[in-house]
Specification:
Layout (H helix, E strand, L loop, with lengths): L4 E5 L4 H12 L3 E6 L2 H11 L2 E4 L5 H14 L5 E4 L17 H16 L1 H6 L3 E5 L22 H23 L5 E6 L15 H4 L11 H4 L1 H8 L11 E3 L2 E2 L9 H23 L1
Parallel strand pairs: 1-2, 1-4, 2-3, 4-5, 5-6, 6-7
Antiparallel strand pairs: 7-8
Length: about 280
């Protein structure tokens, strides 16, 4: 079987690194994307893989990443949008957007759309790491960036809800062009993704609860399954999964009108960011 090219963001640690290792062992060509130079280089060196550095808190970095990927790879068979996390108190990025929303949703939205010509030509699978935390999210276009009310957990949940809505609308818009998209919940995994936040989640990683959490390999299982199985046969494109099975999401996740509006609003925001960069 021909070796495929799989790009994984957030692959310097946690389930991203675990998925990269498992997929590399299966013979895939892995491209490691991370923010930390030290960690990203280390994972890539272990795998003999290419790597790229990118900080999703800056949309200019995401555009640069997309351009570099397109310049190097004629095909991208699988794009895994895995980078993200829970932040601390409300903070705006240099682009003027709430940091959780930008890193967890806007940045992967921008990366995917910037790569769309390569992805459609490759009939690619796009996998978005969501979370069961989408259940306490609430997508309110009048307060997307938490100006009126903000909580760390709600901002995270809303960004994970956005991942699921993005997945369904990506499938709706580009499924006919060859894209197969899926979102998934990895489970509660023992990683440091909440270490810098004020969320109660971070306490789980420092207490006895830690022993009950999934390992990164266990958390990566559904990701690896989606990347190596056949869309349309083994899983339903555009859907949300957990433990290799269809999962129930926030009721807003099934609102097609909301998904369309989120896409349109996201396009407006990334265009505004580009215009600001060019001034």
């Amino acid at each position: 079987m021909q070796q495929r090219t799989i790009v994984i963001t957030g692959a310097s640690d946690g389930i991203g690194a675990a998925a990269a290792r498992n997929l590399a062992r299966a013979g895939e060509r892995i491209v490691v994307v991370g923010r930390s130079a030290e960690k990203t280089k280390s994972v890539a060196a272990d795998l003999g893989a290419d790597y790229f550095l990118s900080d999703f808190a800056q949309l200019a970095h995401v555009r640069d990443l997309a351009a570099a990927l397109k310049a190097k790879y004629a095909r991208i068979d699988v794009l895994v949008n895995n980078a993200g996390g829970i932040m601390g108190r409300r903070e705006l990025t240099v682009d003027g957007y709430e940091k959780t929303f930008q890193i967890n949703h806007l940045a992967p939205f921008l990366l995917t759309t910037e790569l769309m010509d390569v992805l459609t030509a490759s009939r690619a699978t796009v996998i978005n790491t969501a979370s069961a935390a989408n259940g306490f999210g609430n997508l309110d276009f009048a307060d997307l960036h938490g100006q009126r009310t903000y909580s760390t957990n709600r901002a995270y949940g809303t960004s994970k809800l956005a991942n699921i809505l993005f997945t369904s609308e990506l499938q709706n818009r580009y499924g006919g062009a060859g894209i197969s998209a899926a979102a998934f919940h990895p489970g509660v995994v023992a990683t440091n993704f909440a270490a810098e936040s004020t969320s109660w989640f971070r306490h789980a990683y420092k207490t006895f609860i830690n022993r009950f959490l999934l390992t990164p390999d266990q958390g990566a299982d559904t990701l690896v399954w989606l990347a190596t199985s056949t869309p349309g046969r083994d899983w339903v494109p555009g859907a949300y999964y957990a433990k290799r099975a269809l999962a129930q999401a926030n009721r807003q996740a099934y609102d097609a009108k909301l998904a369309r509006e989120l896409w349109d609003r996201s396009e407006e925001m990334v265009r505004a960011g580009l215009a600001a960069e060019q001034r």
